[in-house]
Amino acid sequence: MSIARHHAEWLSLLEISGPFLSLETLAAVFPQGIEHDDADLRRHLRQAYEEWMDSQGSLRPDPAMHEAWVRYVLTQVLELPEAVLRGGDDAPENWRVRMEEHGETLAPDLAVVDPNDGRARLLVQIVPPGQKLESDLAGRPWKATPATRMQTLLYAADAPLGLVTNGEQWMLVYAPRNATAGYISWYASLWLEEPLTLRAWISLLNAYRFFGVPDDATLVAMLQRSADDQAEVTDQLGYQVRRAVEQLVHAIDVADRDAGNRLLANVDEATLYEAAITVMMRLVFLFCAEERDLFPLADELYSAYYAATPMRAQLRAAADEYGEEVIERRTDAWHRLLATTRAIYGGIQHEDLRLPAYGSDLFDPDRFAFLEGRRPGTHWTDTPAQPLPINNRTVLHLLESLQLLQVKAPGGERQARRLSFRALDIEQIGHVYEGLLDHQAVRAGAPILGLAGTKDREPEAPLHELEARAGANLPDAPAALMTYLKEETGRSPSALRRALESVPDAAWQARLLAACSGDEELYRRILPYAGLIRGDDFDRPMVILP
Predict the structure, then answer these.
(1) Bridge partners, residue 543, by sequence
(2) Maximum alpha-carbon separation in the chain
(3) Cα 416 from Cα 406, distance rounded (Å)
(4) Tens digit of each residue's pLDDT (9 = 90 or more) over 149-174
């Protein structure tokens, strides 16, 4: 297994919301992978965990046992000396926050303190077993979650790292000033089931990482370095969303052609493109709102039939079981997205599910009535809808373009990593939206081929343009064609020549004929350039028909 895959594997086992560590940073600090694989420690940890579980599961849970378990993890597992642990009772004033409006004072239960300068390296908050870290802390005047309380405390203490635990969940809170906070959770039960998560826990938070490494190798330095990679994350997200919009426009165009050009009879190119952007921004809004618990994602009815966040996993499971070609025959996912649009815009008042009406132009079903198969000027409450036949495979790839970020790992390979929309800030979303506005949709007056180019270059070339420059000399391409291809694609002449000389296999030729809608004459015209054509997200030749 490559080092990049090794790091990607344990990252996938954590519960991450917000910025955390990039693969590039992890590979630089841990070039051999994470360490600390100690069988004896795992055995002792299991014993201590089971004792704590027995105590907390009894009729009279012992608070002292709960605190002892937390201290065991800090001092024995993370090897933090008692000398660097300071109790909350003697916390300095700048580690306390007085919430005057609630009559409550926040203070850490423990702190990991630098013995040289007395600064807090890590603030620790212990909450009762069973208290969810993402739910309001029970019995307190200020209605806020333990995670939010720790973030507030970190700002006051000017300390970027905090740890909140209920004994089972151990949440690292990274809250640098003037930046998005990150929340990363380990689970004690998973330490025992997936030892890789325990090794990561120790490697990142043990005493050596705090006090025994150079300043640029501490966890805080690693997190800061990883934050610099966010620009690449934003650019990659923008690229994936542009690809998704192109795919959606193409899917609508195919549906229109299959319906004899009736579906888009009253829709111009600008409106079609604006509608495609709106669909993607609706999804971005839904992901952000659902991950921030603004919509009832925990409600079984909403989650099963309206929520956008779990839909990708549901469609991917079906695709993995039956094949993507099979789910391409169904369109219920698109219908579900339209139903969610209506639900958010108009609200739901039902004994089993209640959702307030949010309105807004973004979710107005009448703004792009053609997406529902209605004529412009009709109203969604009194005109039956016949939604565009956008298939489930297309919807799956739209969702994956947003939820799975193809991040570059060391060595140049790209790996899919789930994107946290809770971590996206307004500037990043705005950057993606502005990038979409830099493009437009146009109608093809003649067959156009999507050519394979260098990184981030995906040119389209009219077929007649290639034929005019090639004359009758293929595969010995004349200078005019080679110059044109080099300018359009950015590829070297030798690479272009190999592409022109290559012979596609039978499967690719069959897909090329299908992309030509079975037009044999057009297929024969395109075949000499088949090696130049890039594939779409379904690995089909990018052939754009008039």
Answers:
(1) 449
(2) 89
(3) 5
(4) 999 899 888 888 999 999 999 999 99
